Amino acid sequence: MTKEAFLNGLKKGLKGLPNNDIEEHIAFYDEMIEDKKEDGISEEEAILQIGSIDDVVKQILSETSFKKLVKEKIKKPSNLRVWEIVLLIIGSPLWITLLLCALTFILVLYVLIYTLLIVILAIVLSLFVSFIACAISMFITLFTGNFITSLLAFSFALISLGLFMLMLLFSKKAIKFTFVLTKKLTLLIKYSFIERG
Fold this sequence. Notes:
This protein is mostly helical. About 85% of the residues lie in helices and about 0% in strands. The protein is elongated. The mean pLDDT is about 85.
């Protein structure tokens, strides 16, 4: 792929961003390719090192704020005809309700994802507290001479410790998965502001 094709594809992929932002990104990647060429790398290799246009667009979108995307979307002049404006006004109870439902769904999805993460972390904490309580109980019953109760508390302490360690490993993966999932969901929402085609 040539530099011109890469930059044109990038410009097309960033169509929903403000024009000055698009120009800044185009200039940045143009300069990056030129720097790599000065280091003795061919134009095609330089573009391969940068990555695909989709990857670059995803990176730029992940760094772009929602506020900027929404502001640009609202700012664009619309070429609506009179009858389209009338239909928008008449249909506003429907489309405003649908928009509010979509926003509510997105908010509930985020809350649900993080609530599940909080529940997992609460389970981890409760297992650790259970281990501490069983260990203390074991020592108290051992000193009071109740060996069987002490042995039972010791076994519960070991079970709690084992479950705690297992859940700790699971919670690390759950935290990583949660952040990856929310990042992808956020990127998907941001993509809806970018014009395709």
